Structures are given as structure tokens and as C-alpha cells.
């Protein structure tokens, strides 16, 4: 069932840090996020937004992006500077799980998911551009994004899928038969099969998205996959992606030097495990731009943004 609706932040909550790129919710309705200066924060009392409490749980020493909670006490972190990390939320201890792959340093690790067998999968958005030049990867359309797997007990991740256009958000199907990868630069979701006759292969899952997908979040196992749309589709960008490599490289050099201001259009999408759209919520919000993550907590849809200094709270859509 396709349910379109309006996405309107009814409150923005300052968190004392810039760029809460990913937001995830724990079992108690608290939100965990990471900010630009390396801190991992927990936001309590979202049900009463006037009294939200912000607690510093850890400092990664880098730039945390995608997060995956393991219970209430452990957090996996994709750090754009340091690689794949494991954080103990009780004492703030940070351990590096992997900082290289296929003989090169891990840069721009983006999002992570842990499976029931102990394996950890995570994405790398670009092997050419760092986080602070992410727009160059979008413009040049290099296709250097990767999906990697860290086996239980291993310290060396293996590349299982490459050639992805800005590999970003990541989530597992309810039965863990496949993973869903957001390809921001291609405006699509890609499926990577874990089991069955197609195991080890990737294929389109949802194409021609109405915006550029970023982080993906799943709450209840039987709930939908919530996909943040970091920006609307841009027809001139689609045209640029069909241009010659030299033209794209020139455009990328210009893009990384030009001031960037996100569009005021915001959006999120929810899809089920067949790829059908359950919810598509859009709106315009000059006060909160570039939605890079979304989760449900304390009766709200919670939006994160790599661009803003806080989170936004929205009314959730009516259930199916």
C-alpha cells in the first residue's frame, strides 16, 4: 500500500553538537547519534521535548557516521576517519574492529548492520573522495562504493560487492536472507542476497527513487525499512551522470570548491521486504535541511541531518 503524506518537523531539538548524521533508537525509546567532533550522544526524554537530556557516551576520536546498536550496551560505529569501531556504552571504551580492507586504509565507512550469526556488514561510500568532499563523489559518479563483510572473530573484512554508486545506508531483511544497500548516487536501493540460489549476488531492489537515499533504519523485525532521502532528484545531475568521464571529473572539481546549501525539500520513505512503498512523506522545511537518517522513538519520527545542529521531531504516519 502506497501512502503519501506530509513530513513537517513540529519541533527541532538542539543537541550541543553539529551533524547528527545517523539516529538510531534503543529499546527504551532513547536516541543514539554521533556528531562532527567525534562524540556519541544519547538523547533521553524525547516524549517531553522541552526536557530532553543529552548524555555523552563516548568519543571516537574521528567522525562517526552510521550506527548499529547491539543491545543497550554496545554500539557499532562506521567512522569516516577511523574505520569500523565497537563502542562500549557503559564505560565509553572504543575498539577498532577494522581500519583497512583489500590492502588499503578504510576511509569513508558509512553504515553497518550486524546479523544473528555474528557477521558484520558495512558500506564504504567512496574510495576516492573523503567525507568533506562527498559531493565530488556524487558529481563524478565514480562507482567506487563497496559492501564489506567482517566474519566473526576476523580482523580483516572482505569485499563482497563493489562498483556501488555512493554506498550508504544498510539494513537486513526480516529473515536475514538479503541486505538492502542505499546507493545515494544512483537514487536506488540494491539487494545483496545472503542465502538461496542467488547468494553472493547483487541486484536492483527499488529503482527510480524520488530522492537520494541515505541511512536506512528498521525498528521491529516485522516493521518497514525507513529510508532517509537526503535530497530530491536533480534532473541536471541525472544528465551529468550520463556525460563522459572527463566532464564528470571537471564537474566534481568545481563542486567540491563551491558553497553547498541543501534544498529545503525533505523526505523519508518506508518500504517492505518486497520493495513495495509503505509510506512516502515529503515536505519543505527551511529550518531543517538534508535529512540523512530517520528512526521511530517515543512516539515520533526522529530525523537526523549531517547539516544541522540538532534533530527534528515529526508526527509518525498512521499505521497501515
TrEMBL record:
Q: Which UniProt keywords apply?
A: Glycoprotein, Phosphoprotein
Note one Pfam family from the annotation. SSL_N
> What region holds the Strictosidine synthase conserved region domain?
116-196
Transmembrane region(s)? none
**Any keyword Glycoprotein?**
yes
Write down the InterPro entries for this protein, in alphabetical order: 6-blade_b-propeller_TolB-like, Strictosidine_synth_cons-reg
What stretch or stretches form a coiled coil here?
Answer: none
What PANTHER family does the annotation carry?
ADIPOCYTE PLASMA MEMBRANE-ASSOCIATED PROTEIN HEMOMUCIN-RELATED, STRICTOSIDINE SYNTHASE-RELATED
Q: Which family does it belong to?
A: Belongs to the strictosidine synthase family.
Name of the protein described by the UniProt record = SMP-30/gluconolactonase/LRE family protein
Which species is the source of this protein?
Streptomyces fuscus
